[in-house]
Amino acid sequence: MDALRPVGRTLLRDRAYESLREAIVRGDLAPGAPLKDADLAERLGLSRAPVRDALARLCDEGLVETKPQSYTRVTRPVSRIVRDAASVVRVMHELAARTGVPLLGPEGIRTMREANERFAAAVRDSDVEAALDADDALHQVLVVASGNHAAAATIARYTPLIRRVERRLFGDAGSCGSAELHARLIDACEAGDAEAAVRVTTEIWAALEQLADEATEVADVTGIPAPAAP
Prior knowledge:
The chain is mainly α. It has helices spanning about 10-25, 35-45, 50-60, 80-100, 105-125, 130-145, 150-170, 180-190, 195-210, 210-215, 220; strands at about 65, 70-75. Keywords: DNA-binding, Transcription, Transcription regulation. It comes from Streptomyces gulbargensis. This is GntR family transcriptional regulator.
């Protein structure tokens, strides 16, 4: 399990959290998989304390669920939860576009274009992981430019709920988005047209909200039924 390689001794709670979150998002730890802190600690080369802290954080973020004296396990995607996460992430990216475009310089535009080139190449190669990484890098430019730490933290918290469903439902990188839409976003940013950038951002992220209606189809991919929303 590549995402669960032993980690260094600095910032152990954060490193454990990042490793476990990546393993869940990538599907190395599948929906419904039991999580035992002793086993995870051994695989990560850590003591149990930072692993327990990481699991508690992931529980708060909706990637792990626990019942005292019963179980701790990876959550199974639920359509309502994915839809809510996608809606929140969309609004935060719209805010980042509206406030970030006026503050975006030539270096930011160049970084976005380079990220879109990587995205397009990954789509051609049907490399889902590389496509999603490039997509994140492209949009992160506006998030950083906006200087809105609350928006950045919200995006970081809820994007993994969406990404793990994308990875499980999409068999090829062509489903990860459109380089043409990215190009339109970059052109709007370069022109300093914040409202046009917001409109394209809405178009890009609204499509991800449709994943919520497909989340129940994860059973077709994983063999594990997704529970009904309460």
